[in-house]
Specification:
Layout lengths: L11 H12 L10 E4 L2 E4 L11 E4 L2 E4 L16 E6 L4 E6 L8 E4 L5 E2 L10 E5 L2 E9 L6 H12 L6 E8 L5 E7 L10 E7 L7 H13 L4 H9 E6 L4 H5 L22 H14 L5 E9 L8 E5 L6 H17 L9 E3 L7 H9 L4 E7 L13 H18 L10 H8 L8 H4 L12 H6 L14 E3 L2 E6 L6 E8 L6 E2 L6 E4 L6 E6 L8 E8 L4
Parallel strand pairs: 4-6, 13-14, 13-15, 15-18, 16-17
Antiparallel strand pairs: 1-2, 2-5, 3-4, 5-10, 6-9, 7-8, 7-10, 11-12, 12-14, 16-18, 19-20, 20-24, 21-22, 21-25, 23-24
Helix pairs in contact: 2-3, 3-9, 4-9, 7-9
Bound molecules: zinc ion.
The site of zinc ion has 5 residues, from loops.
């Protein structure tokens, strides 16, 4: 329904006055402001917000230029993020001066972020939205955003699952006085000498938000209650800086920091406080008994790519052996993720001193495998649909698993659902979901195949025990640590209709005499009104 135009057409005079009045209330950056035009309010004055000077083109049509930031290495622009409010059901057309052209993301009130549809963004630069009322914003962004506070909240939420495995420290302070925060994830109960140390940071460039989604995916897996998560936590020490350029992110920049520096290409002569802070920490970690042996520098690129890519460093700037070391990690990720095939391999001569990779190479040579990864904002290679933040989370989970492969930590008997299916069903049988599919139960023992797989029982021979059992104040169930793509949930319900997963905090895993079975003990959930509990297994696409 399109609401008829029945107000509007204020005079230009009024409009100009209004704009001047608003310009006085600009927050700390010129791209962050609140502008009211007739009854529609545009607001970018918040964490990660950014828009140019809005202009009214007609009663229901507005021009929204991008904010162009200036920096030592020139101007940049593509990031935008703003919200708008106005009368319920009023339809407005926005001409987004949107030069890079992926289809924008939208969030309506408190709904999740999603790509706009082709009806909402017919030619990518023109978007049509229907307003939700004065207090219910519609928010638009270049890509599914993660501001400073949103990133912190997500990291905190993820690391709550295993608080003893995570430490947090501020490495330094930016020009705007924000901390550059480092998180370190490792299982403190396993011996240090056998571990490998990893360094990962994202968002040296403020608008490159796919990199932070990817980093959150790495944390997902590190914090996951799965055999893979357990292996990674017990064998690795992973240091992550989710936002290397928090000033740029909070200010809604596309690339540079608060004063227009590039924290990425500082390493010949570092002036950026953020780059200084991470250099000091890297130097300290390199003098530890277990020093950094792998570093990932996560970015996004705005080109139209069919796949994400790494900048592999080539001879003669590095050694032939180092090329192979890099390729081993690239191949490990390609094996793990359906979202990465290394279709666009990018090679480069490593600059003599400009990048953190240069610093690692000059100081420690082949001892540190350091690579830059670039996401993009366009289409994913699995089905050519528009790529999302969740796709990058998935890619990040695979990046974490690929670390296990790179260091050869993956159990030799690890297998996937497809491997298991092929073991128990022949090619013809695998064509029938009713026999070999995850929900089929060919032996009629009330255990669907996916549960038989996850608990290492036989799908064609009735088994007796497999359900979680209540023992005292705990629940206990068996699972297979070799089922690499299975994730387990215990869910509770009061009505068998809505189910809620309980947090994996306090879950304990113990080996049994059978290497393919472990026992998991879970504190009995304390929530009130629990009448039913169930065990659920899910197959991850990103193993
Ligand atoms: Zn970048």
């Amino acid at each position: 329904m399109i609401r008829p135009v029945h107000r509007k057409t204020r005079l230009w005079n009024g409009l100009l006055l209004l704009t001047i009045a608003v310009s006085a209330s600009i927050t700390h950056a010129e791209n962050q402001k609140r502008v009211a035009l007739d009854e529609v309010t545009f607001d970018s004055a918040y964490d990660n917000g950014s828009m140019g000077q809005v202009a009214q083109r007609s009663a229901d049509r507005f021009l929204i230029p991008l904010y162009e930031e200036q920096g030592e290495l020139g101007p940049r622009r593509y990031w935008f993020r703003f919200r708008l409010f106005g009368p319920l059901d009023q339809t407005v057309t926005l001409d987004l001066e949107h030069i890079e052209n992926p289809r924008p993301f939208i969030r309506e009130d408190s709904a999740p972020w999603r790509r706009m549809t082709s009806d909402e963004a017919p030619d990518l630069e023109t978007v049509v939205v229907r307003l939700l009322g004065e207090n219910r914003p519609i928010e638009l962004a270049f890509f599914e955003p993660l501001g400073v506070d949103e990133t912190a909240a997500t990291v905190n939420q993820l690391t709550e699952a295993f608080p003893t495995m995570v430490t947090q420290e501020p490495l330094g302070e930016t020009d705007d006085g924000q901390p550059v925060t480092l998180f370190t994830i490792t299982d403190p109960t396993t011996p240090l000498e056998s571990k490998r140390r990893i360094w990962i940071h994202s968002r040296a460039h403020a608008g490159e938000v796919t990199s932070t989604h990817t980093l959150l995916g790495i944390l997902d897996r590190l914090m996951e209650d799965s055999p893979q998560g357990h292996t990674l936590r017990s064998q690795l020490i992973v240091h992550v800086v989710p936002l290397l350029n928090p000033d740029g992110v909070r200010r809604g920049h596309t690339r540079w920091d608060a004063v227009g520096r590039d924290p990425e290409s500082q390493w010949c002569a570092i002036a950026s406080p953020a780059a200084q802070a991470i250099k000091a920490k890297v130097d300290a970690l390199m003098s530890e008994d277990v020093s950094i042996s792998l570093a990932l520098n996560l970015h996004s690129t705005k080109g139209t790519y069919a796949d994400t890519f790494f900048f592999k460093h080539l001879t003669p700037s590095v050694s032939p052996a180092f090329e192979l070391i890099q390729q081993r990690y690239i191949d490990a990720l390609a094996n793990r993720s359906p979202l990465f095939e290394n279709r666009n391999p990018e090679g480069s001569q490593l600059h003599a001193c400009r990048f953190i990779e240069s610093y690692f190479w000059n100081s420690w040579g082949e001892d540190v495998m350091a690579l830059t990864h670039e996401g993009h904002f366009h289409r994913r290679l699995t089905d050519n649909a528009w790529i999302t933040g969740e796709d990058y989370r998935s890619l990040g989970r695979s990046m974490a698993s690929a670390l296990a492969d790179f260091y050869d930590l993956t159990p030799a008997n690890e297998h996937s659902w497809e491997d298991w299916q092929a073991e128990h069903f022949d090619a013809l049988e695998r064509r029938f979901q009713s026999l070999s599919g995850p929900l089929a139960d060919p032996d009629g023992d009330n255990l669907a195949n996916i549960l038989e797989y996850g608990q290492a029982t036989h799908p064609r021979r009735p088994d007796s025990t497999a359900t979680p059992m209540k023992i005292g104040d705990s629940l206990s169930f068996a699972r297979s640590p070799t089922a690499a793509d299975a994730t387990w949930y215990i869910e509770h319900s009061s009505d068998l209709v809505s189910w809620q997963a309980i947090s994996p905090t306090g879950w304990e895993t113990l080996p049994t005499e059978h290497p393919e079975i472990e026992t998991v003990t879970v504190p009995y959930p304390q929530e009130p009104g629990i009448n039913f509990l169930r065990l659920r297994v899910e197959l991850n696409k990103d193993r």
